[in-house]
Each structure stands twice: as structure tokens, then as C-alpha cells.
User: Fold these one by one.
Assistant:
Number 1:
Amino acid sequence: MKAHFIVKTILCLLLWSSAGFSFEEISIDSYLKGVFGKSVPVPKAVWIMGDLKETIKQATNGSTVKLREKYWSDGDNLVLVLEQIGKTELITTAWHLKDNKVVNTKVLMYRESRGGEVANSFFTKLFKGLGLSNDHDLDSHVDGISGATLSVRAMKKMAKQALLLSEHLNK
């Protein structure tokens, strides 16, 4: 009887911990084909140094900034793949931008054990159409998710970084 109770408890905990969260990894190549079709541009790199690095650090509240980021652009559409730590693990996200606005975002890989709701479309669609204000903040509010505060914060930081890099590349 006791063993039966333990098994049921473990099953309930496993189901509860994953409730409301379904995540399907998508490859970078699949995402790029979805944006650019069959003619995916050759990847390029943007070097993040000097004023650009300081601006990104300030906008993202001191987050670590890589020396360079890979991007794809056909002149109109820009795709960046960025990573940011949620609580303890990296969140890898693709950002599709056009005219310094977010067209779409997709979480490519979510490694945390909690907060995975940020990968769901109900959340990622909140970034659609966002740009930057003059003080390098998002120009519209993005609602938080109870229990996913750090993951939401990481997504907002990546949005700011993507938009700042878009502005830099479009100069």
C-alpha cells in the first residue's frame, strides 16, 4: 500500500511539474527557412565593441555581452540568434526583425526546469511589433508570467539586444 502511494505521488509530481508547458525544439536552419524561404543568406557576424557594447550593457542592466553575434540578413529581414541565462541555464532564441521592429521570435532551446512558458506562442507573440524607445527600453509593455520571472526578464533583455543590434546594422 505504501509503495503504491509513493508511485502515485511521484507520477503526480512529474505531471504537475510539466503542466502547461510543452516545448518543441526547432533548429536554427528550420527557423531561417521559415523566414527566408529557400534562399537563406550567408551568416555574418556583428562585432560588439565600444559604444555599442556599453549601450547594450546599460539597456540589459549589466548583462554579459558577447564579443560578436551571428546574424542573417537579406537587406529587409534580419535574424539574430541570441542567448541569455534565465535562472541558471541558457535560453536560445531566434529574433526576426524588420525596420527595427520585432516580426517574430521563437525559443529554439529552453534548458531550465521551470519557466518554460516563455517558449509558448501566447508569450512570444507579445514581442511582435515591439521597437525601442529613445531611452533603449522596449516601447510597449510585455506582461510577466507567474513563476517565470527570470525567464521573462531574460527574454526582455534579448529583445532589447536584438533591437539595438538591428538599429546598429541598419545605420
Number 2:
Amino acid sequence: MGIIIEPLNGAEVAEISEILEEYDKPSYEDVSVLILARSRNTVLISGDENFRHVAVQLGIVCHGTCWLLDYLANQSIIAYKDAISAYQRMQQNGRNPPKEECKSLSARWKKKSKMLD
């Protein structure tokens, strides 16, 4: 696995400027990722609520970082206690995932973690 650098074609590069003119929040890099997600028909993961809003408006399936942690824990890829730790580290490092959603998920992870101990 690892990181794979994906190129954009000419039409996709041109579309970046169009989207940047319409939306003022996402950066050039953010928009390039939006375009890649749409063209590759993949799910986009971001903890940035404004960015996710733009993605949804453009018809791109987008979820937050807490959704990803929940998915990984539910699939037994990581332990629930690891999801809790990751969420706590996000908060400690100044990341601000959606509070209500993540607090609710964190409470559920704690219950599930206790049931599995």
C-alpha cells in the first residue's frame, strides 16, 4: 500500500480554477483532491467541515475522520480503544472534527471497548 501520486488530466486541471472561482474556502490542493475523488469514483475523507460541504455540493461522497475511525473499528481493523485514542490525539493536536458526531461515536466506542475487555 502506501501513498500513490495520481496525475490530473488537462480537463481536470482546468476544472480546479472553475471550482476555486465558485467556492472561496477550499485550497488548490483541496480542490484537486475533490476532482480526483470524483473522477476515480472514490470516497473522500476529510475532517474539514467546509471542505466536506463543498464535496457534497459537487456530488462527491465524503465522510469525516471520525466516520473513518468508526468504520475501521466496526470492521475490526483497529480496536475500539485505538479509535478512542486517535480521537483524543486529534483533539490534543488542535484538530476539530464535528464535536457532536464524534462525541457520540466516542461514547459508543467506550461502551463497545468495555464489552470486549
